[in-house]
Amino acid sequence: MLTQYDKIGKVKPLLAVAMAVSLTAGLTACGGNNEPSQQSNGAASPSASNAATESASPVEQAKLTVVGNGWDDASMEKSEADAKEAGIEVSDYNYLARKKVEADYPNYEVDWQNWGWAEQLDQKQRAAFISGSYPDIVHGETFMTTYAREGILEPLPQDIVDMVNPNFLVTNADGVPVAVSPKGNVFLLFYNKDLLKDAGIDPETVKLDTWADWQAASDQVTAAGNGKVFGGGIPSHPHLGGAFRVYPFLNALGGSWGGGDEVTLNTPEMAQTLEFVRAMDKNFPKGIGNGTDEGALYNMFEKDKTIAFVVNGTWQAAGAKNNNINYGVVQLPKADNGQSGNVLVGFDYYGVPAKSTNKEAAFNVIRDLVAKDVQIEFAIGTVTPPANKEALAEASVIDSNPILKSAIDAMSSGEIPALPVYDQNDSQIWDVINTKVIAATTMTSKSVEDILKIGQSEAEKYLKQ
Amino acid sequence: MNTESRSFWRRHRDALIAYSIIGPFALWFLLTIGIPLVAGILLAFFKWNGMPVMPEWVGLRNFSFFFNSNEYLSSIWKQLFIGGLCLIFNMLISFGLASLFNIPIRGKGLLRTAYYLPNIAAVSATVAVVVALLIPHGGGLNGLLTKLGLEPIIWSYSAGWMIFWVVVFYVWRNTGPLAIIWLAGLQSIDPTLYEAAKVDGANRLQLLRYVTLPGLRGIAAFNFIREIIGVMQMYDIVMLMTSGGPNGSTDVLMYRIYRDGLKSYNFGMAGASSVILGLLTVLITLVYLRLFLKEEK
């Protein structure tokens, strides 16, 4: 009797043709930085995953292909040129990791690849899986969860799992960690102190502990702004930019949107969240909080200085600083139940395919990616929470920037959820959540009850197709 | 070479030369169009997520889901409605432009180039400009309206306005190439026909009705079929400008196919929707050709 893998082997050529055909349009449309390289496995011994827990000796030979975000030759050169122009040191995690790997493992022959980002990257990686040309390291955002669930990724060695904060890991269907992100972020509440002062609020003593506190302050700024200055609220863009910012407030109430084979939109927690989103939207100019272009909103905060509050990740710090905003930052306000919430954002997970024949060497690259020294340099340079536990606790990191401290505090306070990934029709379900639930809350006057009922029914239909 | 093979070569010489010329093109066609077409159709009968796992045969289940889903059915209508508007306006405006290009005026070469340029520019870059113009607070268009003493419009809240801008952008981008084809048709009409008609006392409208339009029938058929295919495959403008909104009002079928195939990796559903969209395109084309040929007779 044929096993599942035998059957796959028999139809592999057909699958490869079908995949190539189906992805041709996408790949050609998106273009790319580099072509996927030839398969370059073979030199290293195909070790079992448990053997990979022991670090390879620097003299060990290995030839591997690793896909990353900015460690290909062109990106390395660009990072160096940009840093030189800005008069700073390069602090990109891919750059630092490659340099460390080259120093630690001089005998590794590594093909450093960059296959783009988002759908383009996912398409290229899936095409590589189907054709059997597995890179030794793959990476990406939410689709890494799908790879994990499909059993594509090898479990991480325990020493890597122990090195990092659990919020930075992706687990497979059995709950075993299979990928790690060297960086991650959470959302914070930024505010323009000058605008608060203009509205008669003392920015140094302003209370922003609860939803009610924030709403009162934002309402006051909007009222004093006479249609020119606005308090700001929770963005409800009809894409993930809105979902990311709504989810922390739902999470504070203990709600979620499910995930896997379940979607939960029509819940009391969601209804309460959407009522708050709708109430806070009055503190945006019409069409700004729910526009397709979220840049307009952040321009109003950073450049025009006409919005007082924004919900954003630590990357907002650079924008605020570059535009000379007298800004403050706090954790997201707590719900009436006294709980705070958040969501993981900006992760770039790295994992080793189970079919890689260089697992041991590939895990060594990942070890260097989340090594303490690399992580400290990256965290301070980019004001981004690192994965490495020791780096997260390092005084030089925490004290380097108050925004980074706030984010690390939030990250270290417990388990933070990621946005869910659905087993079936993931994109169509997200479209329902983004456009027909979140954006519809602020763009229409339909009752929240009706919006949730319709959204739930439509999303369930896609999930159960 | 023996006598038999020499005689084979002599007997089939022309055919062999012909096949050797068209062979590479036929092979290229097979690889880039034939096999993808068959693979795309086959995908419609499977459930497969683009991972190295066995595709599951589901028969007509994807088609059944399509025809039992209001969202998919309404997206066909949106593709036809928005595409239809794009087609009508593009055909009319490009014809007007071609007539303008045909007048012997100074700088008409520059004019033709100017109208062709939008088609060369990247959709993503030019849509970004339109999106920036449509920003409700601080956007260029509302700034203009405010200066004129008018109330600003929240464009993104209105299905009508967003359809309007999609159509405007499509026509702006595609009218140049179509006008050039119309122009080729206009210039291929024998000028003596106009002179004869004028001698017979035809006015401008009659020249258009009895000389120009009949002379352009073949070109019109070509342009129409070209446009039908174009508008039935249009999704990039929608994706970048409206993301299918507001509230799904511009969610055309082709945009759903893109999301099903390359975002959700539901290749079965993308295949089924593509088959339906393809058949619909063929059907419209056949109906048009039938009407066209009937009139020809």
UniProtKB/TrEMBL annotation, chain A:
Annotated stretches, region: Disordered: 34-59
Domain of life: Bacteria
Keyword annotations of the record: Signal, Transport
Signal peptide feature range: 1-29
Pfam families: SBP_bac_1 (PF01547)
Biased composition (Low complexity): 36-57
Gene Ontology biological process terms in this record: maltodextrin transmembrane transport; maltose transport
InterPro entries noted in UniProt: SBP (IPR006059)
Recorded GO MF terms: maltose binding
GO cellular component: ATP-binding cassette (ABC) transporter complex, substrate-binding subunit-containing
PANTHER family, per database record: MALTOSE-BINDING PERIPLASMIC PROTEIN, MALTOSE_MALTODEXTRIN-BINDING PERIPLASMIC PROTEIN
Similarity comment: Belongs to the bacterial solute-binding protein 1 family.
Official protein name in the record: Extracellular solute-binding protein
Organism for this UniProt entry: Cohnella fermenti
TrEMBL record, chain B:
Domain of life: Bacteria
CDD domains assigned: TM_PBP2
Pfam families: BPD_transp_1
GO cellular component: plasma membrane
GO annotation terms (biological process): transmembrane transport
Membrane association type: Multi-pass membrane protein
Transmembrane segments: 21-46, 80-103, 115-134, 154-172, 265-289
Keyword Membrane among UniProt keywords: yes
Coiled-coil intervals, chain numbering: none
Domain spans labelled ABC transmembrane type-1: 76-288
Keywords, sorted A to Z: Cell membrane, Membrane, Transmembrane, Transmembrane helix, Transport
Transmembrane among keywords: yes
Subcellular location as annotated: Cell membrane
Sequence similarity: Belongs to the binding-protein-dependent transport system permease family.
Protein name in the entry: Sugar ABC transporter permease
Species of the source: Cohnella fermenti
Lineage, highest ranks first: Bacteria, Bacillati, Bacillota, Bacilli, Bacillales
